[in-house]
């Protein structure tokens, strides 16, 4: 295997060396693509030093040397890779020694487009642990049971009950399979662009379950994480999910091969989050409208709004 690891780098001077060295431990890692995204700290200099030290590292910035976000940085990385397989790693995360154990076997089957596993948690400070342990504890980000590739995207859009999720750190893709995708990461999303990408990926590609009961990588939690600002309540999570589901809804409307009932479900997921962020005086009217117009679907269990949380 020749694996290209894409690492977007922003404000990660404390962590990027650890991330890089965790990827270098594997003989299968053919190259590491660092995309430095105009960090306000000293990350660029550290990336330059790493590129000088290790032949496998290739360092890039955006053509205008500006800040474009993780999605655009990953897209640039995808343009630069030369390996046969693609893996991702956030600059403040790191791989564990078992990261590619399942991949080495599963990718012997040419029908396997991608393999996903489990991601764990690493608290970088006691303050981070105190702040975020009630949310994340020591649980795994994972798909909870082995799933047929045809059902993965249905699980990710909440049509298979309690399903779990696929974290980019634990996802490996056959490069040639990406030709099935007309678009890579959605650059308009500053948060959840990875979730949006993985859902579309699971629709077009055959993704197989690898090691889903043990961590393959650790997600670093610290006070400067962008997503933890959402999870800690500094940003209304429903607001960011409206943008995610709006993007998915636009995709579904324009994809003729998606079944109609799935399109309806995606649209209703969007509407449920729109209710959650609507001003309180509008919510009762919206909920009453949806109860009247969507009552058959609500009875069937296809559309499941948490009305209590929507009113908070």
UniProtKB/TrEMBL annotation:
InterPro entries: Glyco_trans_2-like, Nucleotide-diphossugar_trans
Domain Glycosyltransferase 2-like residues, every copy: 4-134
Any one GO molecular function term: hexosyltransferase activity
Alphabetical UniProt keywords: Transferase
Record's keyword annotation contains rRNA-binding: no
Domain of life: Bacteria
Cross-referenced Gene3D superfamilies: Spore Coat Polysaccharide Biosynthesis Protein SpsA, Chain A (3.90.550.10)
Name of the featured protein: Glycosyltransferase involved in cell wall bisynthesis
Upper taxonomic lineage: Bacteria, Pseudomonadati, Bacteroidota, Flavobacteriia, Flavobacteriales
């Amino acid at each position: 295997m020749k694996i290209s690891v894409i690492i977007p780098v922003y404000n990660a001077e404390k962590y990027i060396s650890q991330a890089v060295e965790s990827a270098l431990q594997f003989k299968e890692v053919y190259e590491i693509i660092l995309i430095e995204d105009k960090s306000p700290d000293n990350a660029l200099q550290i990336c330059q030093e790493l590129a000088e030290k290790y032949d496998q590292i290739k360092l890039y910035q955006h053509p205008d040397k500006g800040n474009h976000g993780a999605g655009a940085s990953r897209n640039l990385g995808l343009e630069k890779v030369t390996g046969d397989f693609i893996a991702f790693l956030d600059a403040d995360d790191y791989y564990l020694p078992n990261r590619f154990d399942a991949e080495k076997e599963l990718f012997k089957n040419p029908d396997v487009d991608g393999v996903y596993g489990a991601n764990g948690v690493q608290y970088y400070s006691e303050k981070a642990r105190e702040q975020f342990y009630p949310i994340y504890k020591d649980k795994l980000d994972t798909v909870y049971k082995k799933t047929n590739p045809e059902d993965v995207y249905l699980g990710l859009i909440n049509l298979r009950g309690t399903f779990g999720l696929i974290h980019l750190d634990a996802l490996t893709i056959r490069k040639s399979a990406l030709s099935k995708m007309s678009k890579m990461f959605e650059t308009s999303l500053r948060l959840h662009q990875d979730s949006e990408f993985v859902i579309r990926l699971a629709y077009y590609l055959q993704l197989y379950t690898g090691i889903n009961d043990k961590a393959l990588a650790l997600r670093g939690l610290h006070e400067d994480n962008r997503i933890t600002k959402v999870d800690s309540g500094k940003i209304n999570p429903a607001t960011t999910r409206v943008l995610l589901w709006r993007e998915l809804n636009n995709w579904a409307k324009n994809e003729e091969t998606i079944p109609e009932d799935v399109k309806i479900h995606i649209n209703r997921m969007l509407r449920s989050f729109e209710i959650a962020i609507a001003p309180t005086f509008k919510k009762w009217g919206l909920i009453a409208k949806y109860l009247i117009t969507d009552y058959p679907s609500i009875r069937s269990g296809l559309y499941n709004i948490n009305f209590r949380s929507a009113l908070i």
